[in-house]
Design a protein that fits this description.
- The complex is a heterodimer.
- Chain A is built from six helices and four strands, in the order βαβαααβαβα.
- By secondary structure, chain A is of the alpha+beta class.
- Chain A has a four-stranded antiparallel sheet with strand order 2-3-1-4.
- By secondary structure, chain B is mainly alpha-helical.
- Chain B has a single domain (9-462), classed as Formate dehydrogenase/DMSO reductase domain (Formate dehydrogenase/DMSO reductase fold), CATH 1.20.1630.
- Chain B is built from 17 helices and no strands.
- In chain B, α3 (81-105) packs antiparallel against α7 (222-255), α3 (81-105) crosses α8 and α4 runs antiparallel to α14 (419-442).
- Chain B is globular, with a radius of gyration of 24 Å.
- Classes of the chains: A alpha+beta, B mainly alpha.
- At the A-B interface, α1, β2, α2, α3 and α4 of A face α1, α5, α7 and α15 of B.
């Protein structure tokens, strides 16, 4: 089976260590790199130079859909299709529509928030080369990692390693991805069943 | 610079986790519960609770077969235990949302120790609550009349009815609580998946498959954490007004009617305060048992318990104020039916229910004024159980008593429950605790990633050991607080 260098993985022991390492990687000008931590580290957005999250926009438009959809539904059902006069109020009456408009706004926004987050993060994802290495299993426990992908234009086996060494990493390893041809793909697929 | 996650010693704060605990110890303490065999007591408890859950399904089957005439509901009490139980359960659920959403927005870091279990409790309580309106409609196979979908009568739901608002509010509440709970679990499922990677045999394989699927391929990426944290903040900001709206809408089921004792404007805030009050009592009961059985005292400390007691004291006072205000308004309104109804609450045939309600909800929480009683586990266990009983009686008094003494003396009555009523109620308790036991068996009962995030060493600007050297007196205080839970 053919193998290919997928990414460099540098390990750090403390949040302090990874925050400063991230600043250095950003300064070195890499683009396809990431930080992996068991919990969000405070100040990492700035250290990595990330733009603001776009989840809010997705939620805004989901909420807008919910609130206007609710109004439209109630106006058409109780006001147009089968006018319903209850308590002497007009068939379509805005004040009594408010609770359901609010509830559906919240419902749609919540779906927008969770699925918007998953969409922006490209999750769920079945496999990622980073899982090839055993040491990465501690990334959800108590260790902190920086990964630099081989697809990055600045990626260079020697230079990138030297740069990561300069960030006081506890360990650095090259993670290789197994390139499977089509037959092997099918076998791998069967194994999962 | 000292850490923002270290307690301020000058005002007597103590650590949120046992001092000196490492990240790995947190992972181990919480995950090992799901990885080891269930303790014997778990099986005993599971046997008892699932028996009651089975009783629930038998009782519901009987109700479906015979119709709701087998309940004690009869003129003039068309709503009785069913709606009492519905309001009680939904109220219990509210504390979970309060802890996970409202305390998150207020940046109360101590919520991390209890929010996961409280959110689970919310979902299970709402499941129990939803059962009651569903079976109370009698012909449950027509329940889809409430959905805005075409039906054979070619008529749409009446959106001016608070009962339809309630349907939308409660189902939204359930869905949003589930999304909130699951999104919080994603990083912790990833931890369970990674721990299962080293496991051998079939157990390891199943765990990898199940937790791996649930973790959705989460790899702790900070680019992901950024969107994730924003999502969590937005969900919290949505759940906060939602939780207030749900019990307000529940109270409007009553407040928009003309029955004396129901037709009051104070109901929405009064119901919300009562919901939080009873919910915290239920969280406290569950936490006290769980931390003792599973050795979670290093993560659910006396500080958590004491803070919850303080919230119960506050909401208990709010509820007490509402009781007093109801009486004042009844007297001040000049409406003789309203006046009579409230006098009948304390002197009428249901006086004993009012005594339970007032004693448990207004007098019992007063013990939490005293630090010694507030930090005593037996005291808070008894108090939280009594508060739950008291809050059930509050709903019983409002619902049943008000209907039994309305405008026409000729239609007065005295409500008596039947054995089927009792079985359905006990059955929902069984279902609730069965679901909770399954939860603590298979799901991380404490939000691991969130607890790690509020530990002192999680702050990248923390100077570590040097700033931790507090006075010996402070450490002794922290130890004493921990030991107090033994």
């Amino acid at each position: 089976m053919a193998k290919r260098a997928a990414l460099y993985l540098a390990k750090y022991d403390t949040p302090h260590g990874i925050l400063h390492a991230a600043e250095q990687v950003k300064k070195a000008g890499y683009a396809k790199w990431d930080v992996h931590t068991p919990f969000p580290v405070h100040g990492m957005d700035d250290a990595m130079g990330l733009p603001d999250s776009r989840v809010g926009w997705i939620v805004f438009f989901s909420g807008l859909t919910g609130i206007s959809g609710a109004l439209l539904m109630m106006w058409w059902m109780n006001g147009v299709d089968y006018p319903l006069v209850v308590g002497g109020k007009p068939p379509s009456s805005l004040p009594s529509d408010v609770p359901i408009m609010f509830e559906l706004m919240v419902l749609f926004s919540a779906f927008g928030a969770l699925f918007g987050m998953l969409h922006l993060n490209k999750l769920p994802r079945h496999h990622h080369p980073i899982f090839e290495t055993e040491s990465f299993r501690t990334a959800s426990d108590d260790k902190f990692f920086i990964s630099i992908e081989s697809e990055d234009p600045k990626f260079d086996l020697a230079e990138t390693k030297a740069m990561l060494e300069g960030t006081h990493a506890a360990s650095i390893e090259l993670v290789e991805e197994t390139l499977a041809d089509e037959d092997e793909d099918e076998e791998a697929g069967e194994e999962h069943h | 610079m000292s850490s923002r996650n270290r307690p301020i010693k000058e005002i007597g704060e103590v650590y949120l986790t046992k001092e000196g605990m490492t990240f790995h110890e947190v992972s181990d303490t919480v995950c090992s519960v799901t990885e080891k065999k269930a303790p014997r007591n778990w099986w005993i408890a599971f046997f008892i609770t699932s028996s009651f859950a089975a009783l629930l399904f038998l009782a519901i089957g009987y109700v479906f077969w015979q119709g709701i005439g087998v309940w004690g509901n009869d003129s003039p009490s068309f709503w009785a235990w069913d709606i009492t139980n519905f309001v009680w359960w939904i109220g219990i659920g509210h504390a979970g949302t309060l802890i996970s959403a409202v305390l998150f927005i207020f940046r109360q870091k101590w919520r991390t120790g209890i929010n996961r279990a409280a959110e689970a409790m919310t979902i299970f309580a709402v499941i129990c609550a939803l059962l009651f309106p569903a079976i109370h409609v009698g012909r449950v196979w027509f329940i889809y009349y409430m959905f805005p979908i075409p039906n054979q009568m070619a008529i749409w739901p009446n959106f001016k009815s608070p009962l339809i608002w309630d349907f939308f509010a409660v189902s939204t509440y359930f869905t949003v609580s589930l999304l909130f709970w699951y999104s919080g679990l994603i990083p912790d499922f990833a931890l369970l998946r990674d721990r299962a990677m080293g496991m051998t045999g079939r157990v390891g394989k199943i765990r990898r498959l199940v937790y791996g699927s649930l973790a959705l391929g989460w790899r702790g990426s900070h680019r992901h954490w950024q969107n994730y944290e924003r999502m969590y903040l937005i969900l919290a900001a949505l759940a906060t007004p939602l939780v207030l709206s749900v019990h307000s809408v529940v109270s409007m089921d009553f407040a928009t009617s003309v029955i004396p004792g129901w037709h009051t404007t104070i109901f929405p805030p009064y119901f919300v305060a009562g919901a939080i009050f009873s919910g915290f009592a239920m969280v406290q009961t569950l936490m006290l048992i769980t931390r003792a059985v599973y050795g979670m005292k290093s993560l659910i400390t006396m500080r958590h318990l004491e803070l919850m007691n303080k919230i119960m004291l506050l909401t208990g006072l709010l509820v007490g104020y509402a009781y007093a205000m109801e009486f004042f308004i009844a007297a001040y309104s000049g409406n003789e039916y309203e006046r009579y109804d409230f006098l009948s609450r304390i002197m009428g045939p249901f006086w004993w229910a009012y005594v339970f309600m007032f004693g448990c909800n207004c007098i019992v929480p007063q013990v939490f004024w005293f630090k010694k009683l507030r930090t005593s586990v037996p005291v808070m266990l008894i108090a939280s159980c009594l508060i739950n009983i008291g809050m059930w009686f509050e709903r019983f008094v409002i619902i049943v008593q008000s209907q039994n003494r309305d405008f026409l003396p000729s239609s007065w009555g005295y409500y008596r429950p039947t054995g089927v009523d009792v079985c359905v109620f006990l059955g929902t308790l069984g279902l609730f605790f069965t679901l909770f036991l399954l939860f603590i068996r298979w799901v991380p009962m404490i939000a691991i990633a969130e607890v790690k995030g509020v530990m002192p060493q999680a702050d990248p600007h923390d100077e570590g050991e040097h700033s931790t050297e507090g006075s010996p007196g402070h450490e002794a205080a922290a130890d004493a607080a921990l030991a107090g839970g033994e």
